[in-house]
């Protein structure tokens, strides 16, 4: 496509797409951060459950908030309460809880890859639109406006 023939409405449309894609990228980045946080929490839970099974006296350090922890004795280390979603908590054996959490980690990793792929695809579209807008502004002798190219 020749830059001389660019319709001003097309430029406005490109700028609109650029803004929308930027917003979508922010949302996907936030989702990716939440997925990673859940994955790390699940990994920590697996480690804690496994350490609990190896504890001789059932004593653990229990975080109570504000960076404070207390030593607590777990009465039934062979059973773990696991949130399975929608605030539903079920009791699982030590081994079943670890397996459930490891499955959750696998699902979160797959979801994270999918979201990262979508984010990368949007980045490519944003880069293409930015290049197109830069070419239009260069042709017109105008500098790109903030948020409209030059990314």
UniProtKB/TrEMBL annotation:
Transmembrane residue ranges: none
Biological process annotations from GO: protein folding
One protein family per Pfam: Prefoldin
Keywords from the named record: Chaperone, Cytoplasm
RNA-binding in keyword set: no
One GO molecular-function entry: unfolded protein binding
Protein localization: Cytoplasm
Protein role: Molecular chaperone capable of stabilizing a range of proteins. Seems to fulfill an ATP-independent, HSP70-like function in archaeal de novo protein folding.
PANTHER family assigned to the protein according to its UniProt record, in alphabetical order: PREFOLDIN SUBUNIT 5
Family: Belongs to the prefoldin subunit alpha family.
Description of how the protein assembles with itself and partners: Heterohexamer of two alpha and four beta subunits.
Protein name: Prefoldin subunit alpha
Source species: Methanoculleus taiwanensis
């Amino acid at each position: 496509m020749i830059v001389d023939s660019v319709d001003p409405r097309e430029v406005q449309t490109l700028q609109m797409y650029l803004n929308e894609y930027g917003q979508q990228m922010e949302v996907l980045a936030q989702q990716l951060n939440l997925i990673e946080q859940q994955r790390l929490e699940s990994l920590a839970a697996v480690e804690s459950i496994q350490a609990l099974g190896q504890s001789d006296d059932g004593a653990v350090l229990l975080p109570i908030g504000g960076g404070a922890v207390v030593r607590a004795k777990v009465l039934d280390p062979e059973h773990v309460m696991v949130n399975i979603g929608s605030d539903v908590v079920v009791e699982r054996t030590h081994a079943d809880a670890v397996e459930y959490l490891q499955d959750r980690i696998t699902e979160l990793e797959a979801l994270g890859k999918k979201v990262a792929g979508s984010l990368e695809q949007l980045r490519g579209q944003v880069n293409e639109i930015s290049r197109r807008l830069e070419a239009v502004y260069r042709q017109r002798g105008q500098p790109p406006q903030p948020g409209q190219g030059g990314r």
